[in-house]
Specification:
CATH architecture of chain A: 3-Layer(aba) Sandwich
Radius of gyration of chain A: 20 Å
Distance between the termini of chain A: 40 Å
Strand order of the largest sheet of chain A: 3-2-1-4-5-8-11
Oligomer: homodimer
Number of helices of chain A: 13
Largest interface: A-B, 47 and 47 residues
Helix content of chain A: 25-40%
Number of strands of chain A: 13
Chain lengths: ~375, ~375
């Protein structure tokens, strides 16, 4: 049913290739994830609010957290669906309404996910009241406009991205302070804050120790090289987290991941009404998805430049697992005036580094070759 | 007339002390300003829009620029006056309505300052149209909530400060890009972005060259140590300027100054209806002003801690001159992909460093001793 929309079995094969064929070798490159897996794996169950829990990352993460026993509340303003309307696009996969999604999950899993329709960037009072009512242990913050191309599309989309993303992050942190609750924030950043093509070396985790001119030691965030307004907002988020951690002791884990690929997870396949979204348009469709669609429609692949760019990729299942690990391992509470800051506010990036180097198109067949970085 | 409000001649003496007595020795500590004075001093006259031109820094700066021949347009949403209403405070000096201010200035000077009532944080279309209509050479950006105490007062004021300051800055830069005009932005930052009490050394200008772990060289903004939401927004501004400079070639000068003191300038004294505001409340009144008022009312001075904190101070006349110098010396246009970036986007701080160390109160007399840093 899903694939009737494009009338091609070819895309189905490719999707399976991505979902399964790439899944095994992916583990070959999972060094960073393996490191993180040594952290706590058998935690107490928690109450978790997932902001942006109806989105591409948010929905499978919410299901994953619910599946392993956490109590999950989804907060979303459904902006991603509204942007589909604005762009005249739609998910290739027919996603159910969020209310139906939750009902189906609650029915098939025996768990219970609640949904709250709140815009965290503009409805501060509602957000604060929810925190006070629910007293969550953790808030997972996905409630941001997440497409770099969309963020650069028009002055309106630039301004929306800055206003939405920054106000949302600040509202969340401000509300946590006002609630006087000790809530751990887990935020999804992006590898793009480090810049593309300029770093030229391993990216260390956490704060960096450098010497300023004059020989003064300083502990800094990794220098920010945002390549779009979207990436800029993630850099601004990082500074904002740093401030609220230092000033108010808010515990934050900021995960900088690469491009999230894949569609379904072990949870979303339990019922077709739980399926995750699949974007393939020029704004929200990432490179893998767009190439698949172009191939299936027998049109040239829009390879950028020589096709030799490198990007970090992570499967949606691993994104959900990373969030789980972060939730299970909150930074220790600490007096922010001590040297514990590094442990109170942590950065971590967990990614699979691949060279997306070869896309050939001949005889109506496409080969996508994902190669590990040497 | 001005001083009838507090019924004391004492404050008048103190104000004169600040306005004149401190004015001469101030030059003893003007090393950085002297350096900047070697820049172009006889420029072509320009069209300048002053955002926030009704405020404490904006008004005397607008008059100064007009006085030396630049064509000045003031843009303001009068938020500072509205916050007075909110706080139940008022300027000690009876400031005239902005329309009257402009009329009086145009009358006494023979120049012409126009006023536009626009909120740059929310009225993007109006801001863009103004840029297109007026085609200014420079925009001076003062349109930010500028009190650290106010920014930390309540969740509402925290959120207002972030939303207003970030949206305003992003709107301005976005509108300049959309206008396709080559407009130089001069922004007033704050010394506070460097943190207080933590730097321990000279603060270099411009970008800093550091080595990241692994021996990778990087050119970074000075590490940000904001001590309040207000200071945080200035750090976020800096990242935003860096992005728009790199991505769109926008030329920006970000001036990080210390606490601006003083009330009047050579221009504001020409007519009492041109007088600048004098704030002495707990939010907008800075330390000098508050001590003066406390002394005049015979109440204890609110010295913080031991009184041994150091801050950088700059007289309002010098703020206006710094802006003038920045306008006269825009960064060279450059291909942002070259190494010219440092010259395209400049940081500069011009300040007088003083130790504000002794405030004694006895026999109804107050001594304020400002000492140069050794």
């Amino acid at each position: 049913m899903i694939f009737q929309r494009i009338g091609s079995i070819f895309i189905y094969v490719c999707l399976n290739l991505i979902a399964h064929g790439f899944h095994a070798p992916r583990n070959l490159f999972n060094r960073r994830i393996t490191v993180k897996m040594s952290l706590t794996q058998s935690p107490s169950l928690k109450k978790v609010i997932v902001l942006g829990g109806d989105g591409f990352c948010g929905w499978p993460t919410a299901l994953h957290l619910s599946d392993i026993g956490h109590e999950v509340i989804i907060v979303d303003n459904l902006s991603r669906r509204k942007i589909d309307v604005e762009l005249g696009c739609d998910s290739l996969t027919p996603i159910a309404a969020i209310q139906d999604r939750c009902n189906v999950w609650n029915s098939v899993s025996g768990k219970r996910i609640k949904f709250k329709y709140i815009d965290v960037a503009t409805e501060y009072a509602e957000l604060l009241q929810l925190l006070k009512d629910e007293k969550p242990d953790s808030v997972v913050h996905f409630a941001e406009q997440r497409a770099a191309p969309y963020s650069m599309r028009t002055p309106k989309s630039k301004r929306y991205t800055v206003d939405n993303n920054l106000s949302g992050t600040n509202n969340l942190l401000c509300a946590i302070v006002e609630s006087e609750l000790d809530i751990h924030v887990v935020h999804l950043g992006t590898m793009g804050v480090y810049g593309y093509g300029t770093s030229g070396g391993e990216i260390p985790e956490g704060y960096l120790d450098v010497l300023l001119p004059g020989g003064r030691p300083a502990t800094i965030l990794h220098p920010a090289y945002p390549g779009s307004i979207y990436h800029l907002t993630k850099c601004l988020d990082a500074l904002t987290f740093q401030f609220y951690n230092k000033n108010d002791g808010i515990r934050v884990t900021d995960l900088h991941q690469g491009i999230v690929w894949g569609t379904n997870t072990l949870q979303t396949v339990r019922d077709e009404r739980l399926i995750n979204r699949f974007d393939y348009d020029g704004d929200y469709g990432t490179v893998l998805n767009r190439f698949l669609m172009q191939a299936s429609l027998n049109i040239p692949l829009t390879v950028y430049g020589t096709g030799g760019q490198t990007r970090a990729f992570i499967h949606i299942s691993d994104t959900a697992r990373c969030i789980e690990i972060a939730i299970n391992n909150p930074p220790a509470p600490g007096n922010v005036l001590t040297s514990l800051r590094l442990y109170v506010y942590t950065h971590a990036h967990m990614y699979v580094c691949l060279r997306f180097s070869l896309c050939s198109w001949k005889n109506n067949q496409m080969s996508l070759v994902l190669m590990p970085l040497s």
